[in-house]
Amino acid sequence: MKKKVFGNATDALAGIATDGMTVMAGGFGLCGMPASLIEALRDTGASALTCVSNNAGTDGEGLALLLSTGQIRKMISSYVGDNKLFSDLYLSGAIELEFCPQGTLAERCRAGGAGIAGFYTKTGVGTVNAEGKEIREFDGVPHVLETGIIADLALVKAEIADEDGNLIYRKTARNFNPDMAMGGRMTVAEVEQIVPAGSLDPDHIHTPGIFVQRVVQSTRAKRIEKLTERSKEVAQ
Amino acid sequence: MSWSRDEMAAKAAEEIEDGFYVNLGIGIPTLVANHIPADRDLILQSENGMLGMGPFPFEGEADPDLINAGKQTITELDRTSYFSSSTSFAMIRGGHIDLAILGTMEVAQNGDIANWMIPGKLVKGMGGGMDLVAGAKRVVVITDHVTKSGAPKLLKQCTLPLTGQGVVKRIITDLGIFDVKGEGLAVAEIAPGVSREQIQKATDAALLAWPDKELA
Fold this sequence. Notes:
The structure holds 2 protein chains of 2 kinds. Chain A is of the alpha/beta class. Chain A contains 6 helices and 12 strands.
């Protein structure tokens, strides 16, 4: 079998990052975000990118790295708050933005990867999100047509990969990663741990290796965006 | 006199039936979790991919892989399950969530809700809001009755871009509880010490009915 494990993030993106491509990046905020791969994508210099990601990074983290270098032409996201750089770029007209409801965004990625060109949903009917899109009634209820997204490149983050690219995620760091792993023509997974082929329990695999072409060890520490704690003394 | 945020949250908590799967929005709705009656068991859904959301972690025990939809660190319970975003929104869009309690900027007498965007001012996005209002079995809004500048938030018609059309069933504010009746709102309960005149003055939406019994 063709070797999937690469020595570092730069090698893992060698020859596959091109100008104008569509890139999916997993993560919900910084949680489950492929930080090493995003950094390596910045270093390829690929520009005029369309990035599909729930958020646009936070200041100085994640896709904000590519925003600050001007490599992103368009974002498809559900929420871009907590990001002053994005806000400034958008309001000055330097970047295009397509807002997409979060559930529609996840389903568009999943559908793209599953060979489903479009689907009808109630989400967004009667809002600006449905403007210019086909509306069709099912059982008397209007639904809007949304299209699947196929990305040239999907960057995902998982906890464990085996050498065949089978992935296991951890807690809420899973989020968009399984859907985007399916939605990429080429999917590169960044993981905390790489184990030999055959060492994972087949019943515990979240993303089967057929969706993953390349695997690399993560070199960026996990970050917390909004640390919220309670004191032991006042508990109970 | 009117209800405090915690009293509003306690009123919203009365909406929750035993065994409900509930999604709480960011802001005042998160307070609802502190007021669940002891005889009711519920499971909180967090749309970033978790059922069975626990409280905030103790100091020093936060896990970067474990956050809620507001990106705050949280904890898991012994009944928790995790899943992908598409599965999470299959729960929401597929009508499996019994109740969504959300905050808002505006809500109209026909159940329209606008809580995601102020044109030219606020570039944030709808997140999962449009999915929640379209898919949850029941949508309850919890909000201050008027804006910070004193303008009514309960309107005949929303002026901001909509999050959803005709989706809100009940509105809980610091002044009372209001049920959406299409042609207007029916006042289901008035907060203690609040007068009809006070509500009428602070409300743009038509008020169709008043509760039989009013608290002094």
